[in-house]
Structure formats: C-alpha cells, structure tokens
Design goal:
Blueprint: H1 26-41, E1 46-48, E2 58-61, E3 73-83, E4 87-94, E5 97-107, E6 109-115, E7 121-127, H2 128-141, H3 152-170
Antiparallel strand pairs: 1-2, 2-3, 3-6, 4-5, 6-7
Bound molecules: nickel (II) ion.
Nickel (II) ion (NI) binds near residues 94, 95, 96 and 140.
C-alpha cells in the first residue's frame, strides 16, 4: 500500500466530473487499498478518487468510532436512489480544503446503490454521519465541494484564501 498525495484547493481537478468505472481489476484493487490507507493516515472519514487526482467514480469511507477497529467501506459507481425530506446539519470539513469547517444542511437519510470492491452491487440505507459523508463524497465525483453548499460570501472568502496561499508557495518557497 502506498500513501497518495491529496490535492487541495485551488487545484482545478477538484471540479472535474469523474467517469464511471467499467470493471474492477487488480490495478483498481491496489488503488482502493491506497485510498483507504491515505484516508486513515490523513486522518479522514471519507475520500473520493478525484482527491488523489483519479477522475473515476470511486470513494471510500470509514465512520467507525476511534475506539473501534477500522471499518472501511468501498463504493464504486455510487448512485443516490432516494433522499429523505428530513434534513440534518453537520459541521463538515474536507481533506482537499484543509483546516476549514462549516455547517452544511443535507437530507438526513439516503439510499445508495454501488458496487463493492468485489464488483457486487449492493444498496445501503444510510443515516446520521454516514449519510452526510456519502453525500459529501458523491458530490466530489461531480466536481462539487461542501463549500458550494454554504453562502457565496463565505465560499468566495475560502477560495480566495487558498488561491493566495498557493500563489505564495509558488513564489519563492523551496520544498526540499
Ligand atoms: Ni471532501
């Protein structure tokens, strides 16, 4: 397993719409293992393939509590089949927007269909944190970030901050 580099704002790849996967082969299984390793190392509770610059419809999540053993789940070509009218609010963050958090309101429960790492189709009825994480990660596959769900004023402020930081690091700092 290897750690993969997580891309961050303002990398334009974060806005790509990822492509469905045709088949699950050995290379993909290796990528899935790398993603789980990278997510746990970060640490994060969800990671979409585009965050490691792979524009494919694949994501991993792990919502196990810290005191419990890790329980990663793999979703290939996930589709949201149903969303509840009831909504819930969570404070969200994103490994591609480090150190920024904001409250986001989303449907409280969803039903998702996806292939697992063996290519088997399954449906998951998710609520609570899992529902939020899955919606956040599926958004990534469509080039949508959680800051797209907050006010334009707040969003513009975050984007500007990351643009400035990236300009600074391109200007004279030396990464050794
Ligand atoms: Ni994210």
């Amino acid at each position: 397993m290897s750690l993969r580099h997580i891309i961050t704002l303002p990398d334009p790849k974060l806005r790509l719409v990822s492509k469905p996967l045709e088949r699950i082969d050995a290379a993909l299984t290796k990528l899935i293992d790398d993603m789980i390793h990278t997510m746990h190392d970060a640490p994060g509770i969800g990671l979409a393939a585009i965050q490691i610059a792979e524009p494919i419809r694949l994501l991993v999540v792990d919502v196990a509590r810290k005191e419990d053993p890790p329980a990663p789940q793999v979703f290939v070509n996930p589709e949201i089949l149903w969303r509840s009218d009831e909504r819930s609010i969570y404070e969200e963050g994103c490994l591609s927007i480090p150190e920024y958090y904001a409250e986001v309101e989303r449907p409280a429960s969803i039903r998702v269909r996806a292939l697992d790492r063996d290519g088997v189709s399954r449906e998951v009825l998710a609520d609570g944190l899992l529902a939020t994480v899955l919606q956040h990660e599926i958004d990534h596959l469509d080039g949508v970030l959680f800051i797209d769900h907050i006010s334009k004023l707040k969003r513009d402020r975050v984007i500007k901050k990351f643009q400035k930081a990236s300009k600074r690091s391109g200007e004279g700092s030396h990464v050794l």
